[in-house]
Amino acid sequence: MARDDPEHPTARPRGSGIRSGRLSLTRQLLLFQLSLIALVLIAVTAISLEQSRSSFESGSQRRMLTVAEYTAANPLVRSLLDNDAVPQQFSVPVEALRTTTGVDQLLVTDAAGRVIASPADPRLVGSVLAIDPTPDTSDAAWAGVAPIGANDNVVAQVPVLSNSGEVVGTVVAARRFPAVTELLASAAPNLLVYVGVAGVLGVAGSLLLAARVKRQTLGLEPEQIGRLVEHRDAMIHGIREGVIAVDTDGLITLANDSARTLLGLPADAEGRAIDTVGLDEEAVRALRRREVGAIDTVFVNRGVLLVLNQTLIHPPRSRPEVVTTLRDRTELVTLQHDLGSSRQATDTLRAQTHEFANRLHTISMLMQLGDTEAAVEYVDAVTRDRTELDNSVLTRLQEPAVAALVIAKTSLARERGATLVLSPESALARVDGDLSTDLVTVIGNLVDNALDAVTGALERNVRLDVQTVSGSVRVTVSDSGPGIDAALIDRVFEVGVSSKSLLAGGDSHGYGLAIVRLVATRRGGSVGYRADHGAVFEAVLPVAGARSISDQEQTRV
């Protein structure tokens, strides 16, 4: 790898980090290849020497046997043995045969096994030649490996027969085994060629392999890759945002701890199909979506409002994967709702203040005109109207927070030129604090949506019905507006989807109905929509809420 340029620190390769004293990947691969080549050559040399030795032995045995048989059949040798000639008489003919045949040793023994002719090594004359193994029978030829003197030799032993068929002696032909150095010297030219070719191929292959690995690893060394993997695992599993990757086959290839917590995934989710880990259809569809251009896409899963961003990656020689980051936006949406509720309360108080100021001005003018009787009648009428409204709501809705909300929304509707009517069938007893809070959230959002829907319509009527049915509180809000656009009916409860118009003064963020569904589904209830001369929304909230999320998540929401 190229050295870092001290004058251009920005030219340092990615992940170069602090260099250690270890060898680079190219040198490691080169040393590994050369070591492997050396081991292979040693093995090949050993096998080659063994094959040469075996080949020498088998070939020499046949040749020694031929020489021994030829010598044993020589008439002069047979005659000398048959006539019990002295050893000096054997020297010339045996040496001539040894020289002619090119063997290292050519020995002649008598019937007792005593050497009587050894031209190559006269010291053996008179000694008994002990060849082990010896032939099974005295008249049998034998070939093999046996020691003669201090060296191993390829030996062939053939008996010499007289004219009467008796064994009168033996002929032993021998050839010395070449030493290892001699075998190496004979194989050296071929071995040098092999070493040279293997070395060139090994070096070239190592350089090409190192270059290819460098390209695939972006020029990083193995220890740098190891550090990056450790940093990546620490980062992925240490951040609060959830990270999950799904390939084209729908298999989860990565899921960090936060993703498992936010999505409720099992510990062994990685490697499993995404539609088999307990996610609902909307979550599966969102996590497998290939439209990665959208930013901060939101959806609800198990009562938690999640915001996701996606990136499509194409790993080399692998299937594309969609990497999704998840953030829990439940707290933020709840805060936005609380802020919206505060703003609505402020608007309601402003409307009531405006209404009170108008009435106060009316009373003041009547008093200035001296018509006290008319002023008293006007005060009685206003008081009676307010009392009737309060009594009408409080007798049906005994939960104070819900009753106060309906009274405030009625005043807001009057300020906006609309009519909010509580149905005569409405009936709600006191409920626990959690249900009261959820009812205020659901009724407030549905009524606000209805008032926005009738803005600009010829008839501006909103009807609210709250009843307890079979252990659940059913909230129904209907309006005389234009209803929901057919293109949005299937997505009206999704976050970010809204049919409100900015020109109509509505909040077009699309959080209201999503919050209603979040609250209802969190308690184990439901919310639905139908068209009936306008829009009709119905939410069902169980009195004993079956929360589907953990206590920690409940406190956040």
From TrEMBL:
Top-rank taxon: Bacteria
One of the GO biological process terms: regulation of DNA-templated transcription
InterPro entries: HATPase_C_sf, HATPase_dom, His_kinase_dom, PAS, PAS-like_dom_sf, PAS_fold, sCache_3, Sensor-like_sf
Coiled-coil regions listed: none
Membrane topology listed for this record: Multi-pass membrane protein
UniProtKB keywords: ATP-binding, Cell membrane, Kinase, Membrane, Nucleotide-binding, Phosphoprotein, Transferase, Transmembrane, Transmembrane helix, Two-component regulatory system
Location, primary (coarse class): membrane
Catalytic activity: ATP + protein L-histidine = ADP + protein N-phospho-L-histidine
Listed GO CC annotations: plasma membrane
UniProt key word Translocase: no
EC number(s) recorded for this UniProt protein: 2.7.13.3
Pfam assignment, any one: PAS
Location within or outside the cell: Cell membrane
A GO MF label: phosphorelay sensor kinase activity
PANTHER family membership: SENSOR HISTIDINE KINASE TRCS (PTHR45436:SF5), SENSOR HISTIDINE KINASE YKOH (PTHR45436)
Listed name of the protein: histidine kinase
Source organism (scientific name): Cryobacterium luteum
